[in-house]
Amino acid sequence: MSDADQATIDPTRTPLSTKNKVLETGALLAQNFAPVNAVCAHLNAFHVYSSDPHRCVEANHYCSHISEDVRQCLIYDTPQPNARLIGVEYMISPKLYATLDASERKRWHSHVFEVKSGMLIMPGPAGVPNAGWEVAESKEMEEVIGLYGKTYHFWQVDRGDKLPLGEPELMGSFTSEEQMPKGLLKERDERYGISSEQKKEKRGYIEEPEVQSAKRNL
């Protein structure tokens, strides 16, 4: 079966069997899900294909800390229970980024534009006043702005793939407004009931760190 044939299969149309529902419930009651339970932040932004900068996809990050200098994020296409796991992202501090050689640095991207432009958001939970959540979100952005991310996507949902096909794709991020497709944030903002432009203004106070070169200074 070719990749094209595989891409026509829609696994989301196969309902979960009663047997698997029972097993799932039992596992939830009996097993330890510590790594997943360590997730402490949901971030939403857009990732760009390094192999084709004209393609981008919405990414819902569910992140946890390994240490003060390292975070790891599971990337889903939506924040819904049946969301597809489409990739992973690792985030490291500038201190660790400085230890990487030039060839490795090319695989990592800065979060400065994502934060300062208002594109990167931390969706608020239902029932929490927006004003209060903005404070928590801003504190998170103060931390993320200096981090460098390495991201791979396995499932190209933007082209309609019904399964994760082909090789993993290295992903990057937008670094200027000129790179972003017109109206990209409009639908996302309306869905979450937020304004990227307002977030951009409110984050004006966040100091913009110097982005280290992909070339290592020896």
Write the layout of secondary structure elements.
Elements: H1 3-6, H2 18-30, H3 34-37, E1 41-49, E2 52-65, E3 70-76, E4 85-92, H4 94-97, H5 102-105, E5 109-110, H6 112-116, H7 130-144, E6 148-153, E7 169-172, H8 184-192, H9 196-202
Antiparallel strand pairs: 1-2, 1-7, 2-3, 3-4, 4-6, 5-6, 6-7
Question: Care to describe what's here?
Answer:
The protein is an alpha+beta fold and 218 residues long. 30% of the residues lie in helices and 23% in strands. It has helices spanning 3-6, 18-30, 34-37, 94-97, 102-105, 112-116, 130-144, 184-192, 196-202; strands at residues 41-49, 52-65, 70-76, 85-92, 109-110, 148-153, 169-172. It has a 6-stranded antiparallel β-barrel with strand order 1-2-3-4-6-7. Strand 3 and strand 4 (85-92) form a beta hairpin. The longest helix is centred in the middle third of the chain and has 15 residues, at 130-144. The termini are far apart. The model is unreliable at 1-8 (pLDDT under 50).
Features:
disordered N terminus; 218 residues; single chain; 6-stranded antiparallel β-barrel; alpha+beta; 30% helix
Concise structural overview:
With 218 residues, the protein is an alpha+beta fold. It contains 9 helices and 7 strands. The chain has helices at residues 3-6, 18-30, 34-37, 94-97, 102-105, 112-116, 130-144, 184-192, 196-202, and strands at 41-49, 52-65, 70-76, 85-92, 109-110, 148-153, 169-172.
Give the biggest sheet.
6 strands, antiparallel, barrel
The helix content, as a percent range, equals 25-40%
Biggest sheet strand order reads: 1-2-3-4-6-7
Q: What is the chain-wise order of helices and strands?
A: HHHEEEEHHEHHEEHH
Query: In terms of per-residue confidence, which ranges show pLDDT below 50 for 5 or more consecutive residues?
Result: 1-8
Mean pLDDT: 88
- How much of the sequence lies in strands comes to 15-25%
Number of E strands:
7
Write down the oligomeric state.
single chain
Structural class: alpha+beta
Using only C-alpha atoms, the radius of gyration works out to 19 Å
Question: Which descriptor suits the 3D outline?
Answer: globular
Distance between the termini: 50 Å
Number of helices: 9
